[in-house]
Amino acid sequence: MPEAAVWPEVERAERLARGAALKWASGVFCQPEHLERLSQYRKRESQRTASVHARLKSMVQSYLEGVGWGLEQLREARTELKEVSHTLKAAGLESDGNMDCVKSLDRLREVSINHRQLLAAVSNLPRLYSVQSMVLETERLVESRRLLEAHARLMDLEWWQDDILWQLHGAAGTPGSALSSEDQELVVKYFSGVGQLVDALAKELWAVVSSSLALARQNPTPFVSAVRIVEREEALDRALLAERGGSGGSSRPLPPGRPRCWRATFFQVLEEAVSARFRSVSYLHTRGPGLAGHLSALQHGIMTDLATVRHLLEHCVPTHYQLTAAYLRASHHCLHTHLAQVSSWDLESGEIFAVLNWVLHIYNSPDMMGHPELVTDMERSELGPLISSEGLEQLQSKYVQSVQPIFALVPKCLDTALDVGLTSGMLEENARVALMIGESLRDQTIQMGLYEMENLLNRFREALIEFGKEHCRDPRNTKNKFCLHYLLASISNCIILKWSAEVLQQQQASRSAGQFSRTPPNPLAALDRAVRRACRLVMDQLLLELQLFLPGLLTRPWLAQGDPTPKLCSILERHLELYGRVRPPCRRRLQEEAQWLMVVEYVRAVMQKKLVCRSGEERMQLAQQMLQDNQLFREVFHILEGSGSDSEVNPLTLLSALADFVRLKDPGMLTLEVSGLAAKYPDISDEHVSVLLDIRGDVSRDIRGAVMDLLEQSAPPLPAGYRPIFTEILVPPSTLAFCLPTAKCA
C-alpha cells in the first residue's frame, strides 16, 4: 500500500507546503534581477531545514527513551505483584488454621465485660448516693443567687451524668454497640433534677442580664458572675464539639442539652431588655406638644443607658463582646420600630417637625449618636437609617400638606396691609422652619406656597376685572367712593407679596425646573398682571374725575380766564398725595401714569380743534396759555422731576413743543418745526399735524402740501423703548360737509 494512502495528512501537508513555497517565491522573485540572490535564499533554507531535522531527531530520541523506561517500570511492578500475591495466599491459609483458637476466647470476653460493668457500678455508687443531696444544695445556691457556686456544682453533676452514660455505653459490648434504651432512660430519670437545675440557673442568669443597667449602678457583681458563667458554658460547648467532632472520629455522643449557645442568648436577652426600657418610657401625652417631650425623654434615657454601658458594664465583659456596639444596635432597632409606628399616626405640622428634627438632626448630633466617643464603637453605616428614605419622603409630604391651611389664609390677606405683612411673614417663617429639617422640605414648602400665591393673584386679577366692569356700569355709585383707597391698598399688598415671593424664590434658586412634578409656579408674573390691572383701574378712576373738567380745555373761556386748569391740578394733587402712600416701585409708576394720562387728555383736547386762531395775537395768547398750563402741571408733578426724571422723555415737554409750534411767527419755518417734532415724536401722523396747522389758521395750501410731503418722506421708525403718545389720540373727523368754491381750502 502506498505511503500517501496510509498517511493522507502527509500528502495534504506537502501540498500546502508546496503552495506556500510557490507563493513566497512568486513574491520574492517577481523581477529578473531578483534571481541573483537565489543562491543566498537556497543556502538559508538548507540551513533552516537541517536545523528542523536535528530538532525532530532529538525529540523522537527523547520520546523513545521515555517509553523504554516506562516499560522497564511495568516489568518490575509485575514481578512485585506476584510476590505479594503469594504472601497473601500463605497468610490466608495460616489464618484459617487459627479459627479454632479464637472461638475458645469468647467465654473470656464475656467474663471481662461483666467485670467492667461491676467495676463501673462499684466506682459510681458514692456519686449516685450523693446526686440528690447535690441537686438540693445547688437549688439553694441558685435561689440565693450564688450563681458561680451553683454553676460549679451543676458542672459536676453534668460530668457525672455524662461519665456514667459513657461507661455504660463502653460496657455494652464491642465497639460500635449502642446503649440500650432502658439503661439510658434509667440514667436520665435518675438525673432529671439536673435538667431542672439548668433551667433554673438560666432563668436567674437572664434575669440578672435583663436588669444589668440597674444593677451596674448598685452592685455589678451578679452581672459579672453571669458573664463568667456564660463564658464557661461557651468554652464547654466548644470543647465538647471539638472532642465529638474531631479528626479522631469519636463516637461518644453529646450530653443532653448541648450545645447551649448561652452567649447568643445573652445578646438576645440584652436586646429584649433594651426594648423593655423603651416600653417603660411613658407614652401618655405623646400627641401634640407632648411628642417633643416624649422624644426628649427617649434621648435622655438612651444617653443615660449608654453612659452606664460604656463606663460600667463594658468593663465587666470580655472585649470581644463589644457591649456598647450591641446596645447601640438594639437601641437603634427599637427606635426604628417605634418611630415607624409614630410616623403612621395622623400627625400635625408641629408633631411632624418634631419627629423630622429629632431624626435628622438631634439623633445624629454630638449630643447623641454623633458623640465623639461613640463614633469609634460602630460604623454609622452598620446601623442604617433611623427612618427609611421612603418614610422621610412621606413625612415631608405630610408636613407640606399640614401647613397648607396656613397658606390658605393668603386669600384673606388683601383686606388690610397689616394682614398681608403678617401672612408674608408666616410664609417666610414656614420656609425657615422647613429649612431646619432640610433643603428638600424647604423647597417643597416654598413650592406649595408659591402655587397658592399664584392662584390667589390670578383670582385677585379676575376680581379686579369684575370690579372694573361693575364700576363702568355705574361709575357714580356712592358705594364706590372708597374704591380708589381699596385699589391703592391692594397694590401695596401685591408689592408686599412680591417681596415675599422674591425672597422665597431666591431661597429656592438651587432647585432646577426639571425637579418640579408640574409646571413651576410663577407668582411674579401673576403679580405683575394683577398690579397692571389695578393700576389701570386707578387711572380709570382718575380719568373719571378729570372728565368733568376736560371739555373746558382749549376753548374760548379757557383762553380768556385759564379755567379749568387749576381744578384739574387740584384733582391731580389729591390723587398724587394718595399715590404717595403706595409702596415703591408702584408709587412712581402711578405718578408717571397720571402724568402721561394728563398729557394725553390735554393733547386730545387740542386735537378736537375747539379753538382756531384768527390772528397772530390769538396764536401768541394760545401759546402763552398752553405754557402756563404746562408750568402748572410741572409744579404738580415736581416730585417726578426732582427724582431724576429725564426731560427728554418727560411727556410734559410735548406741551411746550406744541406751544412753540403755535406761536411760530414765520409760516415758512413750519416745515423745519414739523421735522423736529416728527423726529422727537415719530408716532405723530399727518392727521395730527393737519389739525395743528388748522389751529394756527394762517397756513397756505403750498406750505401745507410741503409739510405733508415732508411727513410722508420721513416717517422714521419707532425707536426701541419709545412709548407712543399720539397713537393713543384719535383725530375726530371734520364736521364740514362741503367747502365754498370761492374760499381757500384750509
From TrEMBL:
Keyword Cell membrane belongs to the record: no
GO molecular function: SNARE binding
An individual GO BP term: exocyst localization
Keywords: Exocytosis
GO cellular component: exocyst
Source species, domain of life: Eukaryota
Family according to the record: Belongs to the SEC6 family.
Listed name of the protein: Exocyst complex component 3-like 1
